[in-house]
Amino acid sequence: MKLFSLAWTALRTAVAEVPDEDFEQPSGCTGWLVRDLVCHLVIDAQDILITLVTPADTEPTVDAVTYWQLGGTPAGEDPLDALIPRLAAAYGEPELLKFHFDDVGSAAGRAAGLADPTARVGTRDEVLTVGDYLSVYVLEATLHHLDLISRLTSTTQPPAETLAAARASLEQIAGAAFPASFSDKAALLIGTGRRTPTDVEKTALGALAERLPLVLG
Predict the structure, then answer these.
(1) DSSP designation for 161
(2) DSSP labels for 120-154?
(3) CA-to-CA distance for 51 and 17, rounded, in angstroms?
(4) For the chain, how big is the Rg over CA atoms in Å?
(5) Is 55 helix (H, G, I), strand (E, B) or coil?
(6) I need a labelling partner for 110 at 20 to 30 A (CA). Which of 7, 75, 80, 205 fits?
(7) For the whole model, what pTM was predicted?
(8) DSSP string spanning 68-119?
(9) What are the pLDDT digits (tens) for 120-130?
């Protein structure tokens, strides 16, 4: 719960710090501008709120690791992904988009802080504990924080604690550890295909290089 709060608060702060003119810069999400990514984050915040008020009375079907489904390279044909740029453009002024994310995002953060980590909730036709669900969002929020600042110089990095936790989660999902020589940031970017490994890094990865990138869905 503490790590979620740390990751989510840092992400909200980073969005608030982005200068209006940088909303037209590319983000780390292929095909999305910064404004598109922030629009996606509004939907993420809504999903958190919806999930936390969707109790389940059956046993968990997934945990923070098995929640993630590894797939191939995205085809870019998801209807919601295609809708995001149009929704983002409809906001017009970056301040409106910032305000909406801050409004819904702060509510999601408060709801998470009030939730019972042992309670069970339903999302995506699965059941998991609130604690596991928020652990999923530590990885999600940290990756999107890196996406947000990938082309920017004036925004702060994710906290070291959440970078380390996100790396640990990704290693559990992969079933393998990244080389100790990799920083947490490098492991996350390379592991999820956000950056291509150098020849030296590819050698260090060994057999794991053949399984990358890990496309999380």
Answers:
(1) H
(2) EEEETTEEEEHHHHHHHHHHHHHHHHHHHTTT-SS
(3) 28
(4) 17
(5) strand
(6) 80
(7) 0.95
(8) --EESS--S--HHHHHHHHHHHHT-SHHHHHHHHHHHHHHHHHHHHHS-TT-
(9) 999 999 999 99
